[in-house]
Amino acid sequence: MRAFGAFQRSSLLLRRRRANNEPYALVPSGSFCTDNGFETTSNGSSRVNIFDRHLKRKQRDRAAWLTRPNDSFVDAVAENLLDRLEDCRKTFPTALCLGGSLEAVRRLLRGRGGIEKLIMMDTSYDMLKLCKDAQQDAHNDNIETCFVVGDEEFLPLKESSLDLAISCLGLHWTNDLPGAMIQCKLALKPDGLFLGAILGGETLKELRIACTVAQMEREGGISPRVSPLAQVRDAGNLLTRAGFTLPSVDVDQYTVKYNSALELIEHLRAMGETNALLQRNKILNRETALATAAIYDSMFAAEDGSIPATFQVIYMTGWREHYSQPKPKRRGSATVSFKDIHKHFGSENQSAQPS
């Protein structure tokens, strides 16, 4: 019987000493996992993993060197997510930014949310170093910033220590997405806000089709080349399951044009969004790759020669419960029927129409 090997994953906290410019402090915090698709939880049980988190960390290390400055797609998603802070009257003194598009979130924050302390966390040290070394917007100079090397699945944070948690294009790579969101909720103070953006199931639908057809033609079967993603209908259930109140979900679809399929793959690498499935085929046949590019071009190319790629982004908003939040009335407590409302407003609309 094969034994499961376990190793310790460390999380390092790099804290800025603003007063006397001391070097970063390294504070380790550990969690344990196995290396063969099973993870050991705190109670000794195991659960199946879908993604190779260690490969994903390496991909994000590579992305730190390949990342494009001011990526229009990443910036659009981060800007749309941060716009939700402008709809809130309250401020969020302590905020956490998880994985994904860290640099874009920090650059585009521009004083929104009244943030005084910002904790930036990622599994990749190189990605955090890139974010730290990037030139910052002048509006963010007065924000005390900490950098944490840690895993979204094992948040090294105390309960009720945050006012705001932001995850922009990162949580869809977690093996236990509900568990990660529950940890975010527990880390928030009462009436704390969670903002999340994940890629939805319609993302890269053109590439999925081209890969499937090419594999059937060249290999006589298919293997997963594009990672599975959550559907829109699941997002609201995720927020409710995690215990967030006032859940809100909306969807945007972006179409990005590329000169070739190769340019699309390079963009995915620069974002750290390449395949990280544990049960993936680690060898890509050259003929299959060329056939995929040719099929993509023949099926989806535009008149100008460019090829489109669809990115579906699901935006999620949720709050940690607080007594001051509005609550729904008890079922059956309504005093006016919808039929009466329809009659009232229907008659007004009819009278307002010109004869």
Write the layout of secondary structure elements.
Blueprint: E1 6-15, E2 25-34, E3 38-40, E4 46-48, H1 53-66, H2 72-82, E5 94-98, H3 102-108, E6 117-122, H4 125-133, E7 144-149, E8 162-168, H5 177-187, E9 188-199, H6 205-218, H7 232-242, E10 245-258, H8 261-271, H9 286-300, E11 307-319, H10 338-352
Parallel strand pairs: 5-6, 5-8, 6-7, 8-9
Antiparallel strand pairs: 1-2, 1-7, 3-4, 9-11, 10-11
Helix pairs in contact: 1-4, 5-7, 6-9
Overview of the structural elements:
This protein is of the alpha/beta class. The protein is built from ten helices and eleven strands. The strands form two sheets. A nine-stranded mixed sheet has the order 2-1-7-6-5-8-9-11-10, with helices on both faces. It has a two-stranded antiparallel sheet with strand order 3-4. β6 (117-122), α4 (125-133) and β7 (144-149) form a beta-alpha-beta unit. α6 (205-218) crosses α9 (286-300).
Estimated radius of gyration: 23 Å
* Helix/strand class: alpha/beta
Strand order of the largest sheet: 2-1-7-6-5-8-9-11-10
Overall body shape: globular
Overall mean confidence score, pLDDT? 81
What is the straight-line distance between the termini?
85 Å
- Give me the count of strands: 11
Number of helical elements: 10
Helix content: 25-40%
Keywords: Methyltransferase, Transferase
Protein name: Methyltransferase
